[in-house]
Amino acid sequence: MPASRAGVLAADIIDAIRDEIVSTGRFTLPEFGSFAVRETKARAALNPRTGEQVKAKAGVTEKFKASPNLKQDALADLKKAKRKAAPGRLPSGRPAPTASPARFAKTRPGG
After folding, report:
1. How many Å apart are CA 89 and CA 9, to the nearest integer?
2. pLDDT per residue of the chain (111 residues) written in tens, 0 to 9
3. How far apart are CA 1 and CA 56, in angstroms?
4. Domains of the chain by range and CATH?
């Protein structure tokens, strides 16, 4: 498929998703996740510069919730990388080099 045609197709899909969210407030792609529009309540918040307490207005925001299958697939490699990068190991999974005490004993004064 030519890139120009793929771009048009992707734009059409995004427009269809946008139209569904605007009309119903929700859109779900099985095996991927769901998009939803949520109302937020007025609340007290902090100004990050001054630390002063201010009032945040009520509003509307969008939320995405990934499907369990997407989470599992997306995080599988990350979990493997964390296991490999355990203490004493390099990110590649190999043991980290350690300094030999004998090497340092020779460089100490009086040693």
Report:
1. 45
2. 889 899 999 999 999 999 999 999 999 999 999 999 999 999 999 999 999 999 999 999 999 999 999 888 888 877 666 666 556 666 666 666 665 555 555 555 554
3. 48
4. 3-90 (4.10.520.10)
Give the separation between CA 20 and CA 88, rounded to whole angstroms: 50
**Cα separation, 37 vs 19, whole angstroms:** 13
Specify which residues 45 forms β-bridges with. Answer: 54
Say how many C-beta atoms besides its own lie within 10 A of residue 27's C-beta: 19
> In this structure, are residues 14 and 22 in contact, taking their beta carbons and an 8 Å threshold?
no
Q: Report which DSSP code applies to 95.
A: B
What pTM was estimated for this model as a whole?
0.53
In 1-111, alpha helices (H): 3-24, 68-84, 101-107
